C-alpha cells in the first residue's frame, strides 16, 4: 500500500502542475518510460503518450492552448490493488474553469493511476483519464 501522504502529495503536485500550466511540474510526477492517455467523452483515445518526451509534448500542447483558469479537483481517491511496490489508484476528476471571473464546472471524469515507489519516491508509471464531457 502506498504511503497515503506521499500519494496525496503526488496527486496534488500533478493537479498543481496542470493548473499552473507547468508541463515540467506535471512531468516530474512520472517515471521515465511512463504512459499517459485520455479517453474523450466522444470515444476518441488520445495516446497513449509513452515516455517523458511524448508526455511533455502532450501536456505542453494542451495546457499551452488554454486561456482560462483551471482547477483540477481530484477526489474519492482509493487504492484498487497493490502488487509489491506498484499500486493501482482510482479517483474522480472535477474540472472547474474560470473565465472573466465567472466560475463554472467544465467536466468530470475518472482517473486511473499506476504508481510505483522506488528509492523512497512515488511517481506514476501510468495514468489515464476517462472524461464524461468536453475538457
UniProtKB/TrEMBL annotation:
Residues 5-126 form the SnoaL-like domain. InterPro entries: NTF2-like_dom_sf, SnoaL-like. It holds the Pfam family SnoaL_4. SUPFAM superfamilies: NTF2-like. This is Nuclear transport factor 2 family protein. It comes from Nonomuraea ferruginea. The lineage of its organism: Bacteria, Bacillati, Actinomycetota, Actinomycetes, Streptosporangiales.
Amino acid at each position: 500500500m502506498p504511503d497515503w501522504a506521499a500519494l496525496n502529495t503526488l496527486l496534488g503536485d500533478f493537479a498543481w502542475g496542470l493548473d499552473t500550466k507547468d508541463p515540467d511540474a506535471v512531468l516530474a510526477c512520472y517515471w521515465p518510460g511512463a504512459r499517459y492517455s485520455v479517453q474523450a467523452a466522444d470515444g476518441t483515445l488520445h495516446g497513449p503518450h509513452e515516455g517523458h518526451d511524448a508526455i511533455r509534448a502532450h501536456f505542453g500542447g494542451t495546457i499551452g492552448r488554454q486561456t482560462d483558469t483551471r482547477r483540477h479537483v481530484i477526489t474519492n481517491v482509493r487504492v484498487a490493488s497493490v502488487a509489491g511496490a506498484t499500486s493501482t489508484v482510482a479517483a474522480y476528476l472535477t474540472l472547474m474553469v474560470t473565465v472573466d471571473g465567472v466560475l463554472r464546472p467544465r467536466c468530470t471524469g475518472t482517473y486511473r493511476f499506476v504508481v510505483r515507489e522506488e528509492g523512497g519516491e512515488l511517481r506514476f508509471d501510468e495514468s489515464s483519464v476517462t472524461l464524461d464531457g468536453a475538457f
